[in-house]
Input
Amino acid sequence: MIKLTVDPQVLISLQQAFPRPLRSPARALAKYLAAIEALIFDAVQRGCTPEQRKLKLFAIPLHELANRGGRIGPCKLRLHKWLNDNKLEIVQTVEKGNKFTGEYSQVKLSKLVTISGQVSVKPGQFDEIKSDKELNSHLTGNEADNLAVFKHLYPDIDPTQPLDTKAGVFDFVPVDIESLKAFIVWLTDRAHIGANDKRTQSLIHAKTILAVACVTGGIYPQRIKPSPFGRTYYEGISVQNVHKELRRAMLGNCWEYDIRSSVVAWKMGFAKQLLRDAGLPPDVRKLFPATTLFLEDKADFMSTVRYFTFEGNTSLSTEFQLGLVKQALTAISFGAKILAKGWTDSLGNWKNPALVEILQNTRERDRFLADPTVKAFTAEQKALDHYLFELVKQQEPDLLKLEIVKTLSGRVSKSKVISYLYQHAETEAIDFILACTEQYGHKPIARVHDAIFFSNRLGVDVKTEIEFALQQRTGNPYWYLTPKQLKRYNSISIDLAVEEQLHRQRITDEELLAANYF
Output
């Protein structure tokens, strides 16, 4: 947990201003510091921008700090206000938040306080550790600190009671603790991928999950947060929002099954109906060639688009380029506008189109949008979006009255309507898959939107039967599952390495002794 140490002058000033009751100033200050620590902890969990890290800023709700920080004195003064009025503020406001947008205030700690307990990626942190026992103690941390983290995150869970009593409020994910520890060591001391800020954030997430798992004996509770769009999300850190490598570390050896190109596959399920209603030949392959290629040979589709988009750019890895292309195509699938310029929203905030955020290089973005394959794919997605939107108008007009599918100006957003339809369809498909797998004795260990994780492989026959059942149930022949095996992180034993080094030294000494003897 984050720990703040305040200059003694703050408590002295409080005691002078409020001498009675005797211990009231100390208790009030401790409560106020605990509130700040909790809010900073939450801010760090959410993630800090590079600018915040550089300037040592934290995004916290000041009104919540004022309320949680307590009161003092016979007039019940808010301690937060008293400290500010007397030039003894612990946090200094750099930029006020906006209650309309939900943005928190940007604050920094004053010179009257020092902070400890922050996580950072620093190679060589484990150089002084000489044994597995010492490393394990360093990674698992103090039991009291772990319990403090747990109580902060789950005030409504008693760790001494069975977690099953909270089913329905939480989903529980098994954590491979040893794999997670090995990941933390690798990320801290050996990883050289991604920006340092992203590695730091993954390290923060990993240590939080490990602290919770140490309290629960290897279980990580995820507080359920249903979305009106149809998906199930979780509050705070979850298996859904952590980096994929951290997900692999925490789940350990398992199998991931995700719906292949799910949003595109779902929309293509309406292609034949669209052609029939338009009085066109029901040849989906001929009239939707780009989308068909995307679904049937995605690797070739992606590689071709990547090649013409980046034109020999070697400053970015092929994997990273494919990732950008995937993000851009997904954005188009969800109705992203083909715009190059941003706009100012009703609150005065500047917004960039999704494709501008993804492909930030103007020339590469222009080449991407000019590619004949991408142009055909975009046109086909627009045709499907338009058809689905018209179906909603005819068959489910009440859906268009929902506030969640409207913009801030009150206009119905076609992309939001499509997202609403897709996410409900995705959830229904995953629920059906889970019902089928349960019949074969396979229970999931985690679920991430269009992907499910199992401890064991389903097998080709079971997978094929489930796919066929799903296609029959939905009337969509494009639903398929893609399996992927995930392997745990394996730790490197310090004791074994030391023993091996000593063994080699003994051999060298014996060989030297033998040579001297002869």
Remarks:
- The chain has three domains: 3-116, 132-253, 262-486.
- The chain is about 55% helix and 15% strand.
- The chain has a mean pLDDT of 89.
- The first helix runs from residue 8 to 17.
